[in-house]
From TrEMBL:
Species name: Luteimonas aestuarii
Nitroreductase domain ranges (all copies): 26-158
EC number: 1.-.-.-
InterPro entries: Nitroreductase, Nitroreductase-like, Nitroreductase_HadB/RutE, RutE-like
Protein name per the record: Putative NADH dehydrogenase/NAD(P)H nitroreductase E2F46_13020
Amino acid sequence: MSDILPDTALDQLFRQARSYNAFSGEVSEETLRKLYDLLKLGPTEANCCPARIVFVTSDAGKKKLEPALSEGNRAKTMAAPAVAIVGYDMKFYDKLPVLFPHVDAKSWFEGSPEERLYRVALRSSSLQVAYLILAARALGLDAGPMSGFDNDKVDEAFFKGTSIKSNVIINLGKGDPSSLFPRSPRLGFDEAARIE
């Protein structure tokens, strides 16, 4: 894996990719399965893979989601062909005997304070959110991630009775360029990084 990706791929994944505010098109179940099969390969802490995703594509699913959305996110989410609700499982450690089988990693977390479990689950599921966005872009989809929603309402509607908590919502589809603002500035290397 020593080859550098061509500029066209880097453009699609980063340089020309944007967070869209309006979407069209269709996103098939086959595409969502391909997207997941890519994102699941990204690294997480002890391979804990805490992300749990609900892909909302039906009108009924969107109606369940709608009351939890902030006003500024409601219309664009209702119109998106697919919406990924990415949560994190606070009992992620139950899957570790399968996901990290070479040691007893479950014992590292089982019985830990909730604050520690939350940090691991949130951090690793947030990595998986980024993998989802990159996988979507790699498959020719555009993404619009957001945190403007009521987590408690989303959890009640989609994760009730489970150990899963919502993290990020991502609209998926074909992005409408007219919905874009000019790209916001980013910090330069010397402002955000250093080499020691």
